[in-house]
Amino acid sequence: MLGVLAGALLARDDFWRTPKVGTPSYPYSGGFTFARIKFEPTEWGGGPFMWGLDLKWNHDYPLAEQNFTRIVEEMTHIDVFTGGGNVIELTDPRLFEHPWAYLCEAGFWNPTEEELANLRSYLFKGGFLVVDDIFDRPGYPIYWENTERQMSRLLPGYELVPMTIDHPVFRAFFPLEDLDFDLDLPGIYPVRGKIYGVFEDNDPTRRLMVAINYNMDIGDFWEWSEYALYPVDVTQKGFKLGVNYLIYGMTH
Amino acid sequence: MAGLFEFLFKYRPSLFEEGRLALAAPGWMQIAALVAGGALVFAAFTYRRMRPGSGSRPEGYRWLAPALRSLAIGVLVLCLLQPALVLSTVVPRESFVGVLIDDSGSMAMPDEDTAGDGTRAGAVREALSGQPGSLLELLAERFQVRQLAFGRGAERTESVDQLRFARSESRIGEALLAASDELAGLPLAGLVVFSDGADSEPAELGDALLALKAAGTPVHAVGVGRPRLARDIEVSRVVAPRRVLEGSTVEVEVTLSQTGFGGRSVNLEVEDDGRIVNVEPVTFPRRSSAVTARVMFAATDEGAREFRFRVAAQPGEELTLNNERTALVEVRKRQERIFFFEGEPRHESRFLRRAVQFDENLHVVSMTRQAANKFYGINFDENAKRFDGFPTRREDLFEYQGVILGSMEASFFTHDQMRMLVDFATQRGGGVLLLGSHKSFSEGGFSGTPIAELSPLVLREVESLSVEGRPELIYDLQLELTPQGRAHPAMLLRDDRSESNELWPTLPRLSAYQRATELKAGATALLLAETPMHGEPLVALAYHRIGRGRAIAFTPHDSWHWQMSAEIALEDQTHERLWRQMLRWLVSYVPDRIEVETDRDRFEPGSTVELRALVRDAAFREVNRAQVTAAIELPSGEEVEVPLDWSVERDGEFVGSFVAPERGHYRVEVDARSEGELLGVAASRFAVDNLNEELFGAARRDSVLQRIARETGGRQYGLDEMDSLVEDLSVSREGTTVREARDLWDMPVLFLLLVVFLGGEWAVRRRLGMS
After folding, report:
1. Contact criterion met (CB < 8 Å) for A99 and B347
2. Strand residue runs (E) in B388-546
3. A50, burial (CB in 10 Å: exposed 0-12, middle 13-18, buried 19+)
4. What's the pTM value of the predicted model, to 2 decimals?
5. Which pLDDT value is given to residue B112?
6. Which stretches in chain B have pLDDT values below 70?
7. Would the CB atoms of A79 and B346 count as touching at under 8 Å?
8. Is the pLDDT of residue A160 over 80?
9. 3-state secondary structure of A71
10. Does any CB of chain B come closer than 8 Å to the CB of residue A127?
């Protein structure tokens, strides 16, 4: 009898899927509301994230967006919702109500074709996507390779262009002096941050559609800013880059 | 009626108007008075003695019979005094009459009611043939006749047979003056104009009539042709913009007139260089002769374009040459500049700019407030003056054709800046687009400010903002076109108008902070918004003219959903098209600093073209002290320079003229300088061609003929009234005249009165039993 029940449970499609996590949904406010992309990760497990579930897309949720939006409200004139943000699946039509979106842990991202088609349409219509929190051990770029693979599925033929400081996005609000996001923290392997961009019509003089932070996690900087986990200057830079992404996404 | 008058009074009313009444035998007055007095006394005596046979009649009734007898005696006495009509009549063959014959093409029109060969010209030929009984012969018996043919100007002609009736114009005013000059110094009894009333230059007629009236020359008009064609369609009027941006939707108002086609539908075709660009079905109303159709089409090719508006010839139509008109439209390829001032980074402004980014004719420069006193400019070109925030100098703002005001609260602006924005519309003639947001209109504190003057919406003080100092967001706005919106080119989301109208209700719903329901007087709403959150529909899009410019209010704050929404297909261009059209509309017809215009877009060869230039400085203040020269490029490539002078009547207006000698397209370029410094240049175009204006309104125009006659003391006649014409000319006060008295004692009306009075007396006597 138990065997039958166990078999029935295992046969359920959703048994193998990510556990459901309750996230509040904020109605359309007319202003800017942070949108985090939810996806089915290639692997998940326990960890320090929400309720002990490491679902990848939920890293730094919801503190990162709460802190970030407060800074945006404080520093800029953007009409921003500061209560947090919405968590949206790529198949959800509400995605198109948020022309600026954030996706983290793309190393674990393996979207379906339907999700890709929606996101492609979103970007071509004018949406802006920030991809964050992709870390590899030096010499083992497996998560980067996954990101590249998924991006080539998303936008076939589009290049991931290494960004340089002279791009307007880096002075959209805060003029950044450099793109040095290197971290050498005790007990963790050194990381060398790099930013890539995907441009409209594959033309670097045109609109930046996707900004990819590799070996960087600005969401982490936002989340842990109040605990001073990271050095102040790096934390500040993380906020500055985030605000620049947002201002750029809302003006270009 | 005139015939009855003539029967009773012997002569036509016109002779009584010309002459004066007199008594030919005043010496008989005393005798007549004695006879009349005696007769009256006798009558009174007779009736006093007589008593009525019946007492049932009232007392006063017995005096009726003597009164009637007295009146009869009065009539007889009047006859004894020999009343007469004294007239000035011309001395035979000593006075002159000028006969002006319309030699234009409209006279060659077939006309069922006319004699001769069935054309208007045939009827004139018959009247002036000189055959026995013809007008010319009647005139020649009494006058020296000078015949003049006219089209533009008038020349002597010996015989009507020499005329071809093929001139492309008939300028009646010019012809009358030319005839007056030709016959100056001669004893002129009057002028006679044979015409259908088609006048190519109505503006000239008034001056000519004034001159003839001053000279005391009566002009008699002989109307040729029917006052109404039985079956005809004509393109009566075309109102088209003189200049449009390349790729714009051109809206043209075409008035079609008809007789005999009421209730019928026809197709109005628009042709651009041999290519049909639109076909608009038009149905004529049954009870009205004219209908106005709005046609819209895209102006795709740069340059001076001749758009033809045509209705195909209909079965049974009498005149088909008036089924087409042409409008010259200059399709410009240039970038109109728009300054977009935005108070916060937001999706609406970003998507709006994105929608027009590939429009080569629009250059949107944006200044966005990112933080307090931190502005971010996009698209400023190298030469443009850069400024932080909103300009403080008129010159900086007025270099743009349009301004978009985004989410910026009133307290940001100084009063002078707001005043300057109002002046931008009213004085500079620019277009201002006010966008909805939580900081716009009343919600942004603009009520009572100069911006409230600018707004087409009535801005009332907002009593309380609902949520944390913010206005409440109104969701689920379904936008609906008003009747004016359905006809407006900026609202056309698809090439096919009905397809476009059907699309509007299917668009994703929007939201807004503005509870706008009140329009200013003179403002027009194009879009209304229905929402379950608000009882009456809100105004979503409205505009009005303000001074020389235009102000538009768009209250929803998230039209970007029409680009981003999941319901909208990726390739859908609705959002792009709407904003491209809206911004082109915003800057359409915005004046330049220097402008040059001709009074019309098309002229006849040999016409005088009046040029008018307006000259203003960078702040759009009119400049009177300027050297303004027009360089006119003829179709042959030759260039003519015409200096323009200040008109004195209006500040900044410079005028000049030149005669256009040849057919084709002309280009005028005006160069304005002040103290040697170039203020600017402007260009315009016009066309010269045979316009055949008189084929439009081709029926006899009695109003023109009556005006000619009325204002000069003449009369209008039909072709069957030639005897009257000759008689009226004969009693003219002009020319060499003598006085002539015509008896009136034998007028039938006097005899009739006598019979009535005496018969009446007899009847009364019978009733009273006195006979």
Report:
1. yes
2. 402-405, 431-435, 474-481, 510-512, 524-531, 534-546
3. middle
4. 0.78
5. 59
6. 48-62, 112-116, 382-386, 464-468, 732-735, 770-771
7. yes
8. yes
9. helix
10. yes
Pick from B756, B771, B747: which is nearest to B67 by CA? B756
Which residues in chain A are contacts of B475 at CB distance < 8 A? 28
pLDDT the model gives residue A19: 56
Mean pLDDT computed over A93-112:
96
| A15 inside domain | no
Q: Looking at CA atoms only, how far is residue A8 from chain B in angstroms?
A: 37
Peptide bond into A62 cis (omega under 30): yes
CATH fold of the domain at B336-471+517-522+540-587: Rossmann fold (3.40.50)
How many CB atoms within 10 Å of residue A194? 17
Q: Tell me phi and psi for residue A55, to 5 degrees.
A: -100, 10
State how many domains chain A has: 1
Closest CA to A196 of A167, A143, A238, A160: A160
- Per-residue pLDDT tens over the stretch B201-217: 777 888 888 888 888 88
Q: Identify which of A77, A173, A250 has the shortest CB distance to residue B347.
A: A250
Is residue B669 a contact partner of residue B682, using CB atoms and an 8 Å limit?
A: yes
pLDDT tens for each residue of B729-749: 887 666 677 777 788 888 898
Whether B232-332 and B92-228+699-735 are alike in CATH topology: the answer is: no
Q: Cβ contacts of residue B273 below 8 Å, gap of 6+?
A: B301, B305, B306
Domain range for A161 = 31-251
CATH fold for domain B594-688: Immunoglobulin-like (2.60.40)
pLDDT tens for residues B80-111?
A: 788 888 877 777 777 888 999 998 888 887 77
In 3D, which of B398, B395, B373, B396 has the Cα closest to residue B386?
B396
Contact A31 B346 (CB under 8 A): yes
Instruction: Give the CATH H-level superfamily of domain B92-228+699-735.
Output: von Willebrand factor, type A domain (3.40.50.410)
pLDDT, tens digit (0-9, with 9 covering 90-100), for B624-673:
999 999 999 999 999 999 999 999 999 999 999 999 999 999 999 999 99
- Contact state of A99 with B566 under an 8 Å Cβ cutoff: no
pLDDT, position B497: 86
| Per-residue pLDDT at B189 | 85
Backbone angles phi, psi at A43, to 5 degrees: -150, 155
Q: What is the CATH number of the domain that holds A116?
A: 3.40.50.12140
Which of B685, B446, B461 lies closest to B551, judged by CA? B446
CB-closest option in B350, B371, B568 to A77: B371
